[in-house]
Write a structure and sequence with these properties.
Elements lengths: L1 H6 L3 E9 L11 E10 L2 E7 L11 E12 L1 E3 L11 H8 L4 H6 L4 H9 L3 H17 L2 E7 L6 H17 L3 E9 L10 H18 L5 E5 L7 H13 L3 E6 L7 H7 L4 E4 L5 H10 L2 E4 L1 H6 L8 H6 L4 E3 L13 H10 L5 H7 L2 H6 L17 E4 L6 H4 L8 E4 L2 E3 L5
Parallel strand pairs: 1-4, 5-6, 6-7, 7-8, 8-9, 9-10, 10-11, 11-12
Antiparallel strand pairs: 1-2, 2-3, 4-13, 13-14, 14-15
Helix pairs in contact: 5-6, 7-8, 9-10, 13-14
This protein binds N-(iminomethyl)-L-glutamic acid and fe (iii) ion.
Fe (iii) ion (FE) binds next to loops.
Length: 416
Amino acid sequence: MGNETLGQCERLWIDVRLATFDPAVAAPYGLLEKHVLAVRRGAIAAILPQDQVALSGFGGEVIDGRGGLLTPGLIDSHTHLVYGGHRTREFEQRLLGKSYREISRDGGGILATVRSTRALSREQLVAQARPRLEALIAEGVTSVEIKSGYGLTVADELKMLRAARDLAREYPVRVSTTLLAAHCVPPEFCGQADRYVEMICRELLPRVVEERLADAVDVFCEQLAFSLEQTERIFAAARQAGLGIKVHAEQLSPGGAAALAARFSARSADHLEWLDEAGVLALKAAGSVATLLPGAFYVLRESRKPPVALLRQHGVPMALATDLNPGTSPLASLRLMLNMGCVLFGLTPEEALTAVTRNAAVALGLGEVLGTLSVGKQADLLLWDIDQPARLVEELGSIRPRQRIVQGEIVHASRS
Ligand code: NIG
Ligand code: FE
């Protein structure tokens, strides 16, 4: 059976261990020893025990993995990596004791980045985003989500989303885009958050849908941002437009945003430091992913941790992401998040790696397409010279993928 399939394959890897993360494979990490993986037309066409495969007569390319480990490509399912400028001064102020809330109240925070993002052209935004995206790609990211949210006018939000789509064309990486116009009330609508929400639903969202610029919609539902009622209005409009739903929930205070998002079958609820058991149960019932963002927790020197034990107990899938942004997580490393997810939040290395593969794919609505080494899924793969998957979590800086494979093709981190 297997060899007939192989006959039509373009490329296959031999002498590899596969960390499949496929729940159908009972071993930890879904590990399969001494299997071959074959690709055809950008997808995984076969995974077979090597001793059942006759290579003689195979016309495609055979890649000798030399005992390496093959994993799914890493997925960063929550970033704000398109933005202008930096907020180093705020970093210094926070180190001197000023809080994120105080800085935001004084016109800094998100609004500072809104000013510097509005000042840039689409091309300039792309140029500033490149090194951040390249850093992610170099360490193994093959899919990334990018949010808008620093434009806050129709033109500037569209500009950000177009810049994100430009990056997708330029790099060997899959980009999911998310409209986060409800990130902060812009100065033009100061004191009129409801009117701004109205503008998002009536003016901006239809444009985004018409131009297919976003795959999902997100809202920062928080005391210093948007209320539950405002969030609900945006979710209703997003659902009607057929877009996925995500939420920044329970980051700085409790409030029921995750449960609200669950009512809209959200793909994910993100941050969740203040999530309670009712919220956990709501996410479970909706099949939503709990996305944990240890970078923001760490940079803001928070002490309250997301309820990992409850999420685990109730079987809510957990994702980890960088939240890469200039204020709370200027950290362009998903590998660092693996490490922080374990050291700071208590995930196991297997949970952490599942959180940036299988569960991150679900958080992007791509669970059928990405995230595991399974026949039929897109062939986004990484080949590592390591013997145990947990080394990807433990050791930072020194381990880089030997090969990156996107849609079955071996690619390089640089621009296409
Ligand atoms: O995910 N929580 C809201 N938004 C970002 C922070 C953005 C910023 O400070 O620029 C976050 O942490
Ligand atoms: Fe965020």
